[in-house]
Amino acid sequence: MKCLAVCHSELVLRTLDQVLQPSFDVEFLVDSRPLARKLGASGAPIAAGDLKRTDTYVKVDISPSTCVIVEDSGRPGLKRVLQAVSAAGGTLIYVLTTPGGDSAARLKREEQVRAQFPEVRFLSLAELFGAPLVTEIGRSITRARVQQYQRYFNDADRVLILMHNDPDPDAMASGLALRNLLRRTKATAILGAFQGVTRPENQRMAHLLDIQVEIIPPEAIKDFDRVAMVDVQPHYFAGVIETVDLVIDHHPLQTGYGAMFKDIRSEYGSTSTILTEHLRAVDVSISERTATAMLYAIKSDTLFFNRQANRVDIDAFSYLYPLADAAMIRKMEGSELTFERLACVTEAQQTGLAGDQVFCAFLGDVTREDFIPYVADFFLQLEDVKWTVISGVVNDTLSISVRNLGYTRNAGDLVKRVFGDIGNAGGHRAMAKAVVPLQAFFDRHGPMPYDRINPIIRELTLQALREHSPARPNK
Ligand SMILES: [Mn+2]
């Protein structure tokens, strides 16, 4: 989250720098060039300019979601600064009052400012020490964002909440949560996808929680007054949808599409985690069904915190836990293992190659694409396995799922490096996928029988891992 701190004194500037990093992306603005030079030399991102001019704020590129903290030193001119910030598009404005002076006069001043700028909030320097402020600002930024899109969706008759193909628990739970936030029912906010739910445990979740996913043909999109996307961004639909009203997602930010509102947090383990924060920020009550779906989604997207989970996911999980139906979750989880999946696991176990903490297996022709990531997740549970690279062929396409334990190198980078030139490749730090036309693979490596594919993929992987030994500190 971006934060702009408008300061007069070095003390306040240094305090803000300490308190707000690393949760916020802080930039400082001062009116004194010598001060900017002095502090800039110590590494803080800092600019100098006339604080009463709108173009000063335009230059530092503030937006409605930038948190702007303005130090009030008691000097005249505060109102003109606030005016300039609002004129440049700032909406999340905090005035930081510093101690000293006559407290009655300060209150009066606050009152006057409030009369003219009702949306401005006041903070005192004392409140700055400690984590609650960071939580508070984070929540109020989220609140402002949620209220903005709530208002924007308010007058629509029919809303579409679009999910990726074959929606997973996170997509469905996020859809329910967003419907809740928009205060709509299943008649006025439709959960839709171009292709429906096929994985058995996801069907089971949809069935047990009575979640209806409608199949929407692309040409029907225009029949909706507003379209929101959860757990996916428009680029996924390859040109079918170029602009959308709202996007909420935890996959890496993509460009090349228009969105009226978006909240993309790629460091989060699930979209449901983002939506838990949205629900908490505006105090919407969460039904048992929604809480159950979201809890299950966080568990499943983070493999019960074994993969790509951090403090925010754990926070969301503990918040939802008392609201959810734990017995229902056990029922949904019972459906994970099927005979077909077991057959794939057995195949991988018999033909796969392990060593150097990397497990690689090729499943041959598979009838369902999701067997591949399932096997990749499964073998990550093995002792001494830190990476799994599982491949298989679905309709002349080689699909490769990569998993790792998350604290090592980036799986998304790895697949891009190894397969990016011959197919689609990408993903997160801990999970990634590449889809390559089989012919393109043969063109690059020469035609070969199926049993040669796995050794080649293994060699490519090990080579890429060797080339990029961890030079950067782990995040
Ligand atoms: Mn997800």
Topology:
Blueprint: E1 2-6, H1 10-20, E2 25-30, H2 33-41, E3 46-48, H3 54-59, E4 67-72, H4 78-87, E5 92-97, H5 103-116, E6 121-124, H6 131-153, E7 159-162, H7 169-181, E8 189-193, H8 200-208, E9 214-215, E10 226-230, E11 243-249, E12 258-264, H9 271-281, H10 288-301, H11 311-320, H12 326-333, H13 339-351, E13 353-355, E14 358-365, H14 371-380, E15 387-394, E16 397-404, H15 411-419, E17 424-427, E18 431-437, H16 438-445, H17 453-467
Parallel strand pairs: 1-2, 1-4, 2-3, 4-5, 5-6, 7-8, 7-10, 8-9, 10-11, 11-12, 14-15
Antiparallel strand pairs: 13-14, 15-16, 16-18, 17-18
Helix pairs in contact: 6-9, 7-9, 7-10, 9-10, 9-11, 10-11, 10-12, 13-14
Main attributes?
single chain; 475 residues; alpha/beta; Rossmann fold; inorganic pyrophosphatase (n-terminal core); Diaminopimelate Epimerase, Chain A, domain 1; 3 domains; six-stranded parallel beta sheet; 18 strands; binds manganese (II) ion
How would you sum up this structure, described in words?
This protein folds into three domains: 2-129, NAD(P)-binding Rossmann-like Domain (Rossmann fold, 3-Layer(aba) Sandwich); 151-333, inorganic pyrophosphatase (n-terminal core) (Alpha-Beta Complex); 339-467, Diaminopimelate Epimerase, Chain A, domain 1 (Roll), CATH 3.10.310.30. It has a six-stranded parallel beta sheet with strand order 3-2-1-4-5-6, with helices on both faces. It has a six-stranded parallel beta sheet with strand order 9-8-7-10-11-12. It has helices at 10-20, 33-41, 54-59, 78-87, 103-116, 131-153, 169-181, 200-208, 271-281, 288-301, 311-320, 326-333, 339-351, 371-380, 411-419, 438-445, 453-467; strands spanning 2-6, 25-30, 46-48, 67-72, 92-97, 121-124, 159-162, 189-193, 214-215, 226-230, 243-249, 258-264, 353-355, 358-365, 387-394, 397-404, 424-427, 431-437. The chain has 17 helices and 18 strands. The chain is of the alpha/beta class and 475 residues long. The protein is globular, with a radius of gyration of 25 Å. The model is unreliable at 471-475 (pLDDT under 50). Strand 1, helix 1 (10-20) and strand 2 form a beta-alpha-beta unit. Helix 7 packs antiparallel against helix 10. It binds manganese (II) ion. Residues 170, 231, 250, 270-271, 301 line the site of manganese (II) ion. Manganese (II) ion is lined by residues 170, 231, 250, 270-271, 301.
